[in-house]
Amino acid sequence: MMLDQTSTDALRESATSHTISLHLCSGVGTPSGGPSSTSLATFADYLSAPPYSSKVPTILAAEKKALSLREEARLLEIERGMAEPDLHLDDLQKAKEVCDDVAGPEAFPDKIGRSIARRERIETDREDVVELVYGETGFLGLGMCLQKIKYKYGLPGCNFTPPGGIMQTPYLETFADIGCGLGKPLLLAYCLHGFGSLAGVEILEGLVMAGRELEEMFMKQAKGRLERFEEKENETTKETPITTTIGSFLDLNVFNWTSSEIVLCNGTLFPEELWAEVSRMASEMRPGSFFLSVNRELEVIEFMNVEMVLVEGETTPIFIMQRKSHEQVEIELEGTTSGDDGGENENENENENETEEEDV
Length: 360
Fold this sequence. Notes:
This protein is an alpha/beta fold. It has helices spanning 5-25, 39-48, 50-79, 89-103, 110-123, 139-153, 184-192, 205-222, 229-232, 272-282, 326-359, and strands at residues 174-178, 197-202, 242-246, 262-265, 290-294, 303-309, 318-323. It has eleven helices and seven strands. The protein has a seven-stranded mixed β-sheet, covered by helices on one side. It starts with a helix and ends with a helix.
């Protein structure tokens, strides 16, 4: 359900009204909604007074109605992008701490990845291939994007998210990192959500081999430190496999990342031609899927930018982009075509008028 601004304001006003009624009928507040100067001191006496017992049903009904209306208004604000939901940032902070202890800037600095990548580029005569220069995606920024998908944009019915939602059911979706390097983002994704699979593809073999060793070390140290969400919900805990493949992400026979629900790509240094191809391939993803793009947006009409995330302490933003529905894409394409046709018709009319003037 989607309400306009006027309807949402009316609902919030109704919630406020019921809250004020609750304060007044229970004798603990003023019409402004706050406690009166005497109510706190006299509340205990008021509860023991005979009239109070007769007001209990009214108080309970008012409380229930007020809470219900406030919650409905809050959910509508989230749906309309007016309010930020609870992103469970404590879970993100804990996951980041675990990842930092094993694969963070101090424990496993990015200069290790840069060194491995540069050595292989030199050995394979690809030193000047700029898209193979090593770079990392910050844990906090990526984690914030995943939390926003899980608790906001991935909710059923939000934008183009399908009825079942994204990141709403354990062990269902695939998180893919194309050009994954050492695979550090896969470790953070493992900590934050029970994905069905976590997969990365990287063309430099040295990075993949070092990343697998890092993953093994991470799993040994991380076990027992993570209170995964499925344990909180008393669900059966099972391991999410992390797989990394050596090869080019341009070859879908090596790894078909377009079938994933969430894809991460750090294409900061990609040449324009390569980025255009990545954008074209991403357009094959299913409607509602998300593409997390570091430092630049996809260049196709099939995706919408729902939010740019830039956290304190990190220098590169991440764009949360969502695949539109086929119907929406068709509507936008028809609008573009209609606009072009209109321009052509105007030119034709001008030419006809010029011809008539010449004839006269």
